[in-house]
Amino acid sequence: MNVTMRRFFISNFMGWILFAAITVAYFGFYGKNSLKFGIDLVGGSYITLEVQKNDVVRNELSDKIKSFESSLKHANIELEAKPVFVDNSLHFKFMSKAKAHEAEVLLRSQDKNLIYSVTNSDLHVTVSPQYLSQLLSQAVDSNIEILSRRLDGMSVAEIHISKQGDRFIVVELPDVRDPQQAKMMIGKSAVMEFKLVEDAAASREELFDKYDQELPEGTMIVAGKANKNGHKVYYLVPEYTPVSGKYFKQARVTFGGDFGTDLTVQFEFDDEGGKRFHELTSRNIGKQMAIVLDDEVVQVAVIKSAIGKVGSISGGFQADEANGLARVLKSGAFKAKVNFIEEREIGPTLGQESVHNGLISCVIGLLLLLIFGIYFYRLSGFFAILALVYNLILILLCMSFVKATLTLPGIAGMILTVGMAIDASILIYEQIKDCLARGLSVSQSVQEGFSDAMVVILDANITTFIVAAVLFYFGTGPIQGFAVTMMIGIVSTLITGLFFLKSVFKFYLSTFHVSKLSI
User: Fold this and answer.
1) Using CA atoms, how far apart are residues 143 and 146, in angstroms rounded to an integer?
2) Which of 262, 280, 326, 486 has the most CB atoms around it within 10 Å of its CB?
3) Burial class (CB in 10 A: 0-12, 13-18, 19+), 302
4) What is the dihedral of CA 474, 480, 484, 487, to 10 degrees?
5) Rounded-to-10 torsion of CA 486, 490, 491, 495
6) Whole-angstrom Cα distance, residue 500 to residue 126?
7) Bridging pattern class, strands 199-201 and 168-174
8) Residue 230, SS3?
């Protein structure tokens, strides 16, 4: 007995047992937190967003204004008024119709993706349908990337963000404890602009009264943040500004203010943004500048000197407000604003039922395989079931380490993996039987059986792995969950079938001096 125990503790099989024990202890200690579950298992929210087409057009034309104005100035073509937006077109007003035609020829040569037309002394510029389709696709892709960065910062369990149609985005938020906060983060455009203050008043009506109910061309009214008494100040600012948050390189929370104790959000521009910001501030020293975030003035300050690449925002922020603002600014502004089209919530009850049914199906499948294995292969069939159980443990451990998400299709992938794993054992056992029938010893038969079956097992699993990899690359959401589980399951099947199972046989044969194999 002592010799048997000694052989057990020094065998390779003991290493497999210890590894399994540590894995089970790991799952027992960390529980549910050790695995990430999909929305179909733990519930959550489906949110459908629509990218605003008009905003895509407006943003593209806004980016062109600075270069257009420079080109016109270089060609000595003077504008009679500031460029203004009317519907989905940008209007330039010139001294005469001839000047408007001259400007049309100039700007057309500069950008052929736009449509130009002249009415009297006005030049209208808009985006062509073909170019709009391209811009819309780029805006959707860019917004998806920004949403991923924002929601990753919120530590959402696992996010699936996918494109639907030409301008829709579907966001899946599993196990979100505060869906309203997530919705606020998703819907926040985070468009920050730096605009000179041309006038201010206590109400919109007061500003309109100052200008006889008609605002100066190229200007707009933006409300400031409400003070402690709930009052707001309204500011008259230009519609267009050359400096916006799209040029942000970094944003973080720091302390500032008069006494260095107020929470502020410090930002840093990239090279182009720093150049534009310096140009804006150096030309307007002594004037007021408003920092506008999503059509709301969050801060107004007097420009005391030219500012380069670094600035800060202070607005009486609470800690969560400052961190949230820094996060959305750092993640970037949306390429175009989005609208909430649909929001659906899924409770955890359905997910718990799915997990329960999935576990039951696994247990039933293992029991049926146990009966099948023992009936056809006797003790060797029991060894195959041990390999299956080890296989499932290894799959869960790998999914935990690579932070893969377990979904309902993923559970289906695990069950399919179980079938593939028993298939590998059958191939090995049939080879062993053939070797025994040829008169080889038990030890030689086991060695030859594993060696001969290895090529067939590798071929079958590698081809299946390639299919799963293609599914993962081209699939989304549940399909990817199925593919990930399949790929991990195939690797674990090879490990348990070719190494763990072989270790079990080696330990069994060497410890009990088997002369006739139960197979």
Assistant:
1) 5
2) 486
3) exposed
4) -40
5) 140
6) 67
7) unpaired
8) coil
User: Is the distance from CB of 400 to CB of 471 less than 8 angstroms?
Assistant: no
Rounded-to-integer distance, Cα 123 and Cα 97, Å: 9
CB distance 470 to 430 below 8 Å: no
- What is the pTM for the complete model shown? 0.62
Question: Which tens digits make up the pLDDT trace of 429-484?
Answer: 999 999 998 888 888 999 999 998 888 889 888 998 999 899 888 876 678 778 88
| Integer Cα distance of 227 and 317 in angstroms | 12
Measured in residues, the chain has a length of 519
The position carrying tokens 């993640």 is 331
State how far the Cα of 205 lies from the Cα of 201, in Å rounded to an integer: 9
Provide the 3-class DSSP secondary structure of residue 317.
Answer: coil
Where b means 16+ CB within 10 Å and e means fewer, 388-419 reads bebbbbbbbbbbbeeebbbbbbbbbbbbebbe
- Does residue 76 sit in helix, strand or coil? coil
Q: Give the integer Cα–Cα distance in Å for 119 and 203.
A: 36
Bridge partners of residue 172, in order along the sequence: 46, 160
Instruction: Kindly tell me the sign of the dihedral angle through the C-alpha atoms of 215, 296, 67, 145.
Output: negative
- Give the chain's residues under pLDDT 70: 1-11, 31-33, 152-158, 176-179, 181-182, 184-185, 187-190, 256-261, 313-317, 321, 324-325, 327-333, 347-352, 354-355, 358, 476-477
